[in-house]
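Backbone-to-sequence.
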């Protein structure tokens, strides 16, 4: 089912160790084992930087329950150390692919704000790096939002504005 609007681009991680061979098919299996219809993310960026399609970019997503109806998503493979601790352990190839994908998506979804899953759901740490700090250090052409964290109030304001 296609979304009618895209207000958010949410970055996730797979919470997998660097030694694990994880791709969109593996994540699809994990999500189906949880009773989901299919993979919840639109895109998956593997350790080698290859970007794989999950759900269609404009399809209703299943990745952040609070905003699934108004967001698209990308999942970076990794985010967990070999000793099972949260870790920013993404590869240079993944960072390059993330930059490329975000640069494309801010053109496709000009009103969307880029956030980490933890900014939508404070019980999460995913993607295990500071997304706003990343955005401040990167030049994402055409990204119009100012930097800072997303509050519950902002989420509710966006939802109310779309209902008017």
């Amino acid at each position: 089912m296609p979304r009618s609007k895209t207000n958010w681009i949410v970055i996730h991680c797979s919470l997998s160790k660097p030694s694990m061979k994880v791709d969109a098919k593996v994540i699809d299996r994990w999500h189906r084992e949880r009773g989901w219809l299919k993979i919840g993310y639109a895109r998956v960026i593997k350790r080698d930087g290859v970007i794989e399609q999950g759900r269609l970019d404009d399809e209703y997503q299943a990745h952040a329950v609070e905003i699934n109806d108004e967001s698209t998503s990308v999942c970076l493979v990794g985010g967990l150390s070999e000793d099972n601790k949260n870790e920013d352990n993404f590869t240079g190839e993944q960072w390059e692919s993330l930059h490329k994908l975000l640069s494309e998506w801010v053109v496709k979804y000009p009103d969307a704000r880029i956030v980490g899953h933890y900014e939508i759901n404070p019980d999460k740490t995913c993607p295990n790096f500071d997304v706003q700090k990343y955005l401040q250090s990167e030049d994402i052409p055409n990204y119009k939002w100012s930097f800072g964290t997303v509050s519950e109030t902002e989420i509710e304001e966006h939802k109310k504005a779309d209902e008017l």
